[in-house]
User: Fold this.
Amino acid sequence: MARQFTATFERAGEWWIGYVEELPGANTQGRTLEEARENLREAIRLILETQREIIQQEVKDAKQVVRESITV
Assistant:
């Protein structure tokens, strides 16, 4: 499932710094803009995957759990 986020990139000397406005903690850097973009994609994937694993572990022993997709 594809998701869209707002990526912001800033030039900082020889580096590009990137972050995602909607996802605190998703930030990175790269020597080129394209490298920063790819690094940010990977950071987003890792954050979402880790969050999903944490939540699944926390609700593993719950008596009743309902999982469903939600669109906003």
The chain has one helix and three strands. Residues 7-59 form one domain. Residues 56 and 68 are 13 Å apart (CA to CA).
